[in-house]
Amino acid sequence: MRSEPTHAGLLRILTLCAALVAWMSPAAAQQGPRLRREIAETLVVADADRMRPFRWTREPAVIALYFGADWCGPCHAFVPDLVRIRAALREAGADTEVVYVSQDHSETQMRRYMRQQQMPWPAIDYRRIDALPALRRLAGTAPPNLVLLDRAGNVLASGWEGRHYIGLTPVLRTWSEHLRRAAVDTTPPLLHDGPAAHRHPGD
């Protein structure tokens, strides 16, 4: 007859299970806070002829990572809406900011695109994007994409779910709804199903 496991035996099993979980997922457990820290440490803004380092005066609760590029037509169509929505949320008291993650072919193109579109938000330093694999994994298959991160670095919404493009309108709705649940009195501003908001990047 097989004997019942002893208390000491159960304790050893639980200890081994805990060790296995810790071994399998330390990176996942630390990824969110590390990503927020990496973002904060690599911010720049566009001047007339160069990119200038930027630091938060106070880190926002929700970051909207905008993945785009100067060569991307839908990106040009989307940015004016993004500028208006960001402004409406912040004017209503939302603790949020956009950060541009460039998929341009050069820093010069990135700076030109930011200045042409008059982006009022910072960007990730172009020279450091390749060294941030966790950030690059959020980009999706093609721009434009918008990814919302909470204060802990958790992804609240993304225009890409794996290789399936769900569009940017659901992300914009989540952005407004999440901030409303955080006791910010906002109404979803300028959310519509226009072509720039939901068109597949390849269309």
TrEMBL record:
<dbReference type="GO" id="GO:0004791">
    <property type="term" value="F:thioredoxin-disulfide reductase (NADPH) activity"/>
</dbReference>
<dbReference type="Pfam" id="PF13905">
    <property type="entry name" value="Thioredoxin_8"/>
</dbReference>
<protein>
    <submittedName>
        <fullName>Alkyl hydroperoxide reductase</fullName>
    </submittedName>
</protein>
<dbReference type="GO" id="GO:0030178">
    <property type="term" value="P:negative regulation of Wnt signaling pathway"/>
</dbReference>
<dbReference type="InterPro" id="IPR013766">
    <property type="entry name" value="Thioredoxin_domain"/>
</dbReference>
<keyword id="KW-0732">Signal</keyword>
<dbReference type="GO" id="GO:0031397">
    <property type="term" value="P:negative regulation of protein ubiquitination"/>
</dbReference>
<dbReference type="InterPro" id="IPR036249">
    <property type="entry name" value="Thioredoxin-like_sf"/>
</dbReference>
<feature type="domain" description="Thioredoxin">
    <location>
        <begin position="19"/>
        <end position="180"/>
    </location>
</feature>
<dbReference type="InterPro" id="IPR012336">
    <property type="entry name" value="Thioredoxin-like_fold"/>
</dbReference>
<feature type="signal peptide">
    <location>
        <begin position="1"/>
        <end position="29"/>
    </location>
</feature>
